[in-house]
Design goal:
6 helices; 2 strands; single chain; mainly alpha; about 180 residues; Four Helix Bundle (Hemerythrin (Met), subunit A)
Length: about 180
């Protein structure tokens, strides 16, 4: 009887290890998005409240608008890739009239939570499925999510200058 219990436990352990290894690409992607969320939160926390309205030039977005644009794109990309219904309409976050530090932080963090929770529901096989992103671009779902990651990184990076113009020191790079 003990031999059977040992064998069953061993099989369960091996199945768990195999499942964890099979989920690795999804888990790795979730980990990167969690890091990006934490890093973006540092940017949001570092910018002084008056800096949320800062525009380096009149035709540029304000700091708040950059962060809200990043958020709207996160919702749009991930909804298009995963099929999860976005809780906000296209461009809705950026159109908010409350661009206070507290509200922008709340909206941006909710956007990251949507991304992370949506990706967690995916399987590694789904990352290799094809998608026609925004009806124009033929990519795998994994590649489309990488483009989304690149987009949020780009706009967060732009706000480094905004933080310096506001007289604050941007967070240190967070690659790992």
């Amino acid at each position: 009887m003990k031999a059977i219990q040992f064998f069953m436990s061993l099989c369960l352990l091996l199945c768990t290890v195999n499942f964890a290894q099979a989920q690795s690409p999804v888990n790795d992607m979730v980990k990167e998005w969690e890091r990006a969320k934490e890093y973006t939160k540092e940017y949001l926390d570092t910018m002084p409240e008056p800096g949320y309205a800062l525009k380096p030039t009149p035709e540029m977005r304000s700091f708040a608008e950059q962060m809200l644009h990043l958020t709207d794109a996160n919702y749009g990309f991930v909804s298009a890739v995963t099929g999860e219904k976005s809780p906000v309409g296209f461009g809705e976050s950026e159109k908010t009239t409350d661009k206070s530090k507290a509200n922008v932080t709340k909206l941006v963090m909710a956007g990251y939570d949507f991304v992370i929770n949506s990706i967690k529901k995916m399987t590694p096989a789904q990352l290799n499925e094809n998608v026609k992103l925004f009806g124009r671009f033929d990519l795998t779902k994994g590649a489309a999510l990488a483009k989304c990651f690149e987009h949020q990184t780009h706009h967060r990076g732009q706000t480094t200058v905004y933080i310096r113009l506001a007289g604050a020191k941007p967070p240190a790079e967070k690659l790992f």
